[in-house]
Structure formats: C-alpha cells, structure tokens
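Worked example 3 (structure in, sequence out).
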C-alpha cells in the first residue's frame, strides 16, 4: 500500500471514529419548545419528519442519527415554591418486608416468600377481589383460612399471578402470609409550578419512592395538603437536613393524579394565595451557567427568593440531574445549611424564565445539589 492510500485509509478511519463518537454524544430523545429547532452544530443538517423525528446528516450527506423530538407548548406558568403535604394512595398494598409466621406447632412458615412474593411487590387482587387497603387484605386472608389463594401482584409494572397459602399464627391465632405492607405514603415537598389556566401543578421534580423498598410508589390517587413549616434540621456534611411541618388530613387543597420518576402531578382546588406572576418556561437551550434564584418556603407559609449559582448544565440529560446548582444565599445557608429534604421541587428562575426545579442534595456538600430541566417535568405531565 503506497503512502497516498495509507493516508486516505487513515483519514477514513479517523473520520469514522469521530462520527461514531459524535453519534454517542447526541441523545436519542430531546424535548424542545414549539417552534424551536434542534441545532446539532455547523457540520450537521437536520430534517424533521411528520412523526416528530429529526434525521441528522453530517455535511448534509452522511446519515448520523435519528433523534426523537418531544415538543411542548410555549406557555407561562406560575413559579410556586410553596411547601405542601403530599399524601399518595398506593394502587394496591405495597410489600415493604417479609417475615416468618410462627405456626401453632412452633414451626416457622413463610407463606408469602414460598409463594413468590418479594419486597417491593404491590398486591392488587386476592382471588379476583380488589385490594386497596390493609383491612381488605386482612379480611381476604381471614376468609380464605388455610386454603391456597390466587394473588395478583404488580412487580415493577409487570403483572404476575401467584399462589399463596396462609399459615395460622401461634401468637394471635389468626391466619397470616408473613408480609408487612403499606397502603399510603405521606411527606413534605415543594410545588414547582402551577398552570394558571387549569390549576394543574408539578411538584418535587422526582418521584416519591418507598422508604423501605426504594421503589417508585405506584400511585392510585392522593391529596395535596396545606402545610406550615415549624422548624428546620440544618444539613451538614454527611447528614441531610429536613424541613418539618404540620398538616392535617382535613386541610386538602388539591389532588395527586400521577407519581412519576420526574415529578408528582395533579390539580389544585384554586391558585395558592400570594403566588407570583406567571413566567415563561425556558427551553434547555436557554439555560446557562451563571446566577439564578430559587423560590422556597422554609418558615411558616412564606415563600422567599434565595440566590443560587448554576454551575453545570448537561443539556442531553432527560432525567432529574441535568443541572448542578450551588446555594450562594447567606440567609438560606445560615438557616438550612443548604438544600434540605422538603426543598425538592423549588423552582429555579434565570433571566425571568423558569428553567428547572431542585431535586437532590449532595450528601457531602449540602450547599450543592442536582436539579431537573423544567421541560422534562412538563413533558412527563403531557
């Protein structure tokens, strides 16, 4: 092979390697505002088809990648920052632990485990009867006695039918299956935005997971409750802080409709009093490193503005960690130590646009944390 051929081959290899590397950097899916064009760089030409797909070609000739585009409407939303109580009802009963049943003969039985039930499963039906509360589960087990039961479970979105035979407990003389379960979950979080047109909202920026299983809770419905923050446990290195508030079951101001990996969504009965004016939503192309601020409710019912710095922006991220922020506001740092539990969902505003929501704290550096792009939340609630 002569020098010219070797040089041509080397050029071809380098070009192919470069295009392959670029292909890996380009995401498979993107969220854009209506009317916005995807700009992959000066060397690429993009063609949109009728199915919302963008076909990228290098130099307008070489096909590189097809990117699926989700378009969201240009709209104005109210940045909230209001802390609320969030109670979600599980679609079934969630198995949070398995334990043996000491039988009448003193032998340890494990009906749920033997039947194939695992921690994190959600029991949906027993013998074709819907189960949505713990009392319903207990009644079905009692009625079944020591006969085999057909148990329908939801395991990470997949439905499975199992057979479980209860065992009679020596301790209380009732039939049990050896499973600890939960029918609902509640806590404190922050509403990110409210749509002034229909009072729908997005909150948290991430889903609510069970404290024991770590799994996203499949929500059937739930309530949004009016809350007053009574105290704050300051965050320290290695020890997350927490907002502590009070809410009563009777203080319902809205409903939960969806619990997703990218936020909790639903509708309020009315706009929360003293809410700010609506602001436009930024596309991720408009989000940049630099100064910004968050809205947060860390005392009583008052929402205040606190300064932050956007340190990093990963515009290819479609999860809830696309932005890294640093708290720079001395007042907030003095009172909370930085980002604490309960602040998930605090809206981030930059250049009079809502750009994202706080989602996670860095455990070993509580003044820093992750945030999600707001377009991710909106697209999940579409």
């Amino acid at each position: 092979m002569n020098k010219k051929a070797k040089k041509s081959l080397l050029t071809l290899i380098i070009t192919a390697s470069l295009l392959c590397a670029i292909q890996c950097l380009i995401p498979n899916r993107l969220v854009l505002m209506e009317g916005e064009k995807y700009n992959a760089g000066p060397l690429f030409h993009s063609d949109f088809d009728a199915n919302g797909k963008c076909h990228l070609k290098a130099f307008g000739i070489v096909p590189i990648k097809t990117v699926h585009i989700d378009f969201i409407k240009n709209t104005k939303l109210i940045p909230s920052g209001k802390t609320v109580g969030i109670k979600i009802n599980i679609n079934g009963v969630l198995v949070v632990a398995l334990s043996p049943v000491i039988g009448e003969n003193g032998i340890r039985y494990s009906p749920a485990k033997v039947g194939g039930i695992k921690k994190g499963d959600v029991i949906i039906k027993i013998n074709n009867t819907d189960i949505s509360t713990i009392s319903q589960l207990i009644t079905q087990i009692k009625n079944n006695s020591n006969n085999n039961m057909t148990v329908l479970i939801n395991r990470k979105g997949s439905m499975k039918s199992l057979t479980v035979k209860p065992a009679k407990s020596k301790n209380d003389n009732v039939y049990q299956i050896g499973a600890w379960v939960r029918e609902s979950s509640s806590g404190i979080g922050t509403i990110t935005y409210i749509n002034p047109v229909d009072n729908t909202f997005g909150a948290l920026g991430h889903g609510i997971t069970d404290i024991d299983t770590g799994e996203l809770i499949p929500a059937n419905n739930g309530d949004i409750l009016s809350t007053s923050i009574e105290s704050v446990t300051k965050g320290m290195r290695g020890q997350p802080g927490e907002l502590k508030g009070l809410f009563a079951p009777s203080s319902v101001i809205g409903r939960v409709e969806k619990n997703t990996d990218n936020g909790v969504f639903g509708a309020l009965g009315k706009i929360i009093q003293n809410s700010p004016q609506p602001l436009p939503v930024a596309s991720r192309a408009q989000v940049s490193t630099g100064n910004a601020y968050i809205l947060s409710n860390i005392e009583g019912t008052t929402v205040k503005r606190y300064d932050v710095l956007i340190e990093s922006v990963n515009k290819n991220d479609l999860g809830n960690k696309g932005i890294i922020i640093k708290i720079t506001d001395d007042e907030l740092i003095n009172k909370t130590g930085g980002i604490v539990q309960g602040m998930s969902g605090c809206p981030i505003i930059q250049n009079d646009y809502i750009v994202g929501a706080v989602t996670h704290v860095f455990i070993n550096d509580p003044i820093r944390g992750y945030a999600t792009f707001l377009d991710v939340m909106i697209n999940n609630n579409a």
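Notes: The chain has a mean pLDDT of 86. The helical segments are 3-25, 111-115, 134-144, 330-336, 374-380.
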